[in-house]
Specification:
12% of the residues lie in helices and 35% in strands. With 286 residues, the chain is mainly β. It folds into 2 domains: 83 residues, Immunoglobulin-like (Sandwich); 184 residues, Glucose Permease (Domain IIA), CATH 2.70.70.10. The strands form 4 sheets. Strands 9, 12, 13, 14, 15, 16, 17, 18, 19 and 20 form a 10-stranded antiparallel β-sheet that branches. It has a 4-stranded antiparallel β-sheet with strand order 3-2-6-7. The radius of gyration is 19 Å and the shape is globular. The N terminus and C terminus are likely disordered. Bound molecules: zinc ion (ZN). The site of zinc ion has 5 residues, from loops.
Amino acid sequence: MRLFFTNTSCTALLFGALSLLTTFSHADLPQDSRRAGGIAVIEVSSDTTTASFGDRPVVLVVEDHKKYAIVGLPITIQTGVHLLNTDKAHFDFSVAEYAYPEQRLTITDQSKVAPDPEQLARYQREATEQAIVYKKFSAIQTTHFTKFIWPALGKISSTFGFKRFFNGEPRAPHAGLDIAAGFGTVVLAPANGVVVQTGDYFFNGQTVMIDHGQGIVTMLCHLSRIDVKTGQTVKQGGVIGLVGKTGRATGPHLHFSVSLNNARVDPLLVLPKNQNDGQVTTKDIQ
Ligand SMILES: [Zn+2]
């Protein structure tokens, strides 16, 4: 794969990040789904070198000699008209209403609903750590990000965006996809990247975050074992760890989240429809 750096000398953080936008050749595009937690795939002129949405730089890809901005739409985004800025033009696009399913649960043990102050403080520290990773826009050029593979194979036990209410109290919508793979199933890197965070978190359990470059970050949670270290380069299909049920999980599963320009988006929009597409065999990755 060839890549084209437009400028590698800038040092100012945001300006530098914007300038380091690269283009991919022959990338497959993710599904265009303009809703909260969705992705807007917007064609831009071929001479575009930078794009941004809000205060975040946005990845640009080339497909069949056309250039596209791939904009992650936060789950909190308002419906209506939004603006993509590029160095050549501005683009209006509409975010549509979308009703995610709701789940209402009654839990009699209140301590399971609301973490105690110590747990809450821990959670807030961890969320801050993760927020820093999600805001990365590194020049790492590692992959055609839309050619993700499934990090584990299994039944989908919870989809993205699910709204949960415990005893009538709303909880943050589900920010990833739950794959009910069996305990000890190997978890694979969905694309090439660099491990930027590993840890044992209050809600997410043993977790690995991978920076795929250009603001594309994935997170793999509830692992029973982590086989990689921070700073390690991983290849698509390489083993990250094993499925478990660490953190707040009722049973073994992999929670998988995908972030673009610091917006968590529905992983199904970037994963192949067929779970086996692009999978490498164990033999290939050893
Ligand atoms: Zn989950």
